[in-house]
DNA sequence: CCGCATCCTAAAGGATACTG
DNA sequence: CAGTATCCTTTAGGATGCGG
């Protein structure tokens, strides 16, 4: 894997850009509980609907459908229908969706390193209360 | 600003680490709508409760309190009380919280670059429907 | 196999009033 | 100023059943 754009940018002296409502709403639609897991799964390759369902514990069909529709609408995911009978539907990461991959990896990595300290903070907080 | 750990890691051939429930829950508690704005604001320096309130449009006192408590419990934010009358309460980013800063910047930057294409995808999707 | 429609419950969150 | 407490509305989302 080569140097990412993300890395370069965080190293420049970036002006304190303010988050606008539109930007936050996009993040909300892409980083929520189910979306994160869908994107994470699709990073490993295209998946059928029921494959995704099995890969993501506890997701209901309704939530998965809603999540996939929203990701598709936002251009993160492509939906490919094969008109056999019964139909086969495949979901894959779009090129735009792929630009999120490094970011998701970074997020996950951050949680992995932060979690021990977070756990300590939680114990401390709960003990004080 | 120097090279970030985040950048380095995404350049290593990382095994496909699976997101666990704990990791996702931490992200949920730290990247939600209000938390993101609180952290973003605190990146610029310590703030009083009502300063935060004014800085974050549409947040209610109840939501802000809940958000700050959760961030404090997770060790992201420190709460400093000065026992004057009336009391002064200051919130500041903890060291652990500071490790999120680059990540949030990256997220925001991603939205800024992706948004135009997302908008096109949305129009396309809505037109088809 | 994929997904929509309906019903229903639980949880998030706003409005308002009150306190140290 | 910085909250807590209460009430009440809105929304997310689970369960179930049907249809292409």
Provide the descriptors you would attach to this structure in a database record.
homodimer; 129 residues; mainly alpha; 3-stranded antiparallel beta sheet; 61% helix; 11% strand; DNA-binding
Secondary structure: elements and pairs:
Two copies of one chain form a homodimer.
Chain A: H1 5-11, H2 21-30, H3 33-42, E1 47-48, H4 49-55, H5 61-73, E2 77-82, E3 88-93, H6 95-98, H7 101-128
Antiparallel strand pairs in A: 1-3, 2-3
Chain A binds a DNA duplex (20 and 20 nucleotides) through helix 5.
Précis, in short:
The structure is a homodimer of 129-residue chains. By secondary structure, chain A is mainly alpha-helical.
Fold and architecture overview:
- The structure is a homodimer of 129-residue chains.
- By secondary structure, chain A is mainly alpha-helical.
- Chain A contains seven helices and three strands; from the N terminus they run αααβααββαα.
- In chain A, strand 2 and strand 3 form a beta hairpin.
- Chain A starts with a helix and ends with a helix.
- Mean pLDDT of chain A is 88; it is low at 1-15.
- At the A-B interface, helix 1, helix 2, helix 3 and helix 7 of A face helix 1, helix 2, helix 3 and helix 7 of B.
- Chain A binds a DNA duplex (20 and 20 nucleotides) through residues 48-50, 60-63, 65-66, 81, 84-89.
